Amino acid sequence: MSSSSFLHQRQQFQQILSNPFRITPLTSTSTTIKPSLISLLFSRSGFLILLLLIIILGVFFPWINFFGNSSSSSSLSLKNQLKWKEYSLAQAVSFVAKNQTVIVCAVSQPYLPFLNNWLISISRQKHQDQVLVIAEDYATLYTVNQKWPGHAVLVPPAPDAQTAHKFGSEGFFNFTSRRPRHLLHILELGYNVMYNDVDMVWLADPFPYLKGQHDVYFTDDMTAVKPLNHSSELPPPGKKGRTYICSCMIFLRPTNGAKQVMKTWIEELKGQPWTKKKKSNDQPAFNWALNKTVGQAELYLLPQAAFPSGGLYFKNETWVQETKGLHVIIHNNYITGFDKKIKRFRDFGLWLVDDHASESPLGKL
After folding, report:
1. Which is it for strands 245-252 and 216-220: parallel, antiparallel or unpaired?
2. What is the pLDDT of residues 270-287, one digit of tens each?
3. What architecture does CATH give domain 100-359?
4. Cα separation of 37 and 349, whole Å?
5. Residue 65: band (very low, low, confident or very high) from pLDDT cuts 50, 70, 90
6. Which residues contact 190 (CB under 8 A, 6 or more apart)?
7. HSE-up of 269 (CA within 13 Å, CB side)?
8. Among 313, 349, 344, 347, which residue's Cα sits nearest to residue 328?
9. Which long-range contacts (CB under 8 A, 24 or more apart) does 160-166 make?
10. Does the predicted TM-score (pTM) go above 0.85?
11. N or C: which end of the chain has fewer CB within 10 A?
């Protein structure tokens, strides 16, 4: 093909691009495709022109669309943030629940790394879609919902939880004492609810262990080794006249018995407020509630080998080896301090966010 012929065809192609949506008048001459156009389409140069057109449409149109939508994406993000700010607990639970069951945690901004670590372990068990984060400050609410829309809710009023509260502090008490109210509300909506502290890691799926139709399922907080076939009944009281059950991992069915336990827990917290002299936390009140509702609720102690306390799992290497393969949820308790907990998780290969952040619905924070 001569250069003048190719230039002529290029001019024809440019004319087509200049007005690709031009409507040709419906005349007898316009309905017949000219032979020169047919020869152009089936020639080598026509093929090159067609290929060039595909490249232009494939590359430039999405690029233009990206810039065209940048402002609308920003406004949409702001709109979503405002939407989730007004999100009620009932709306949130309805959004995330699967099989009438929701998994909840309560988190303030300093604990977002622990939340992410916990979520990675839950994602590996394919239960992340059921998770609802009860945000205890607006920073957490916005962070989670921006990255994972609809999976965080704030139940007002938000406590002053901008710092990592130490166990036994007034801030820690104020933070944790809201828990039974959240759980009771979810039960009253008709849902099963599992509560976890976020300093936990799932090694297996816990739901097969929730056997029967009991009202409340919980774990022992003691370090003394129990036999593998130990009783599922509430253990006897200890030296302080109450049991030592952990309030960190609880599963509740929406029954009258479970609701009564939550109501009693709330009353116990009211009767045992935090003072400088008596630095209360939510766990003794939970134990008193369990002790006082025996006979009113069906209680179930989960197996120690599957749900060990941190004081057992991280400090009894012999027991860990003897029960290897039986562990389901590990709780990083029996240690205080943000950095100490992270170090312990790292030492035991349970701090997952360093290398596996992509497995979390939140990604890398």
Report:
1. antiparallel
2. 866 645 555 456 789 999
3. Alpha-Beta Complex (3.90)
4. 68
5. very low
6. 100, 254
7. 20
8. 313
9. 161/108, 161/109, 161/136, 161/137, 162/108, 162/109, 162/110, 162/137, 163/110, 164/108, 164/110, 164/111, 164/338, 165/108, 166/336, 166/337
10. no
11. N
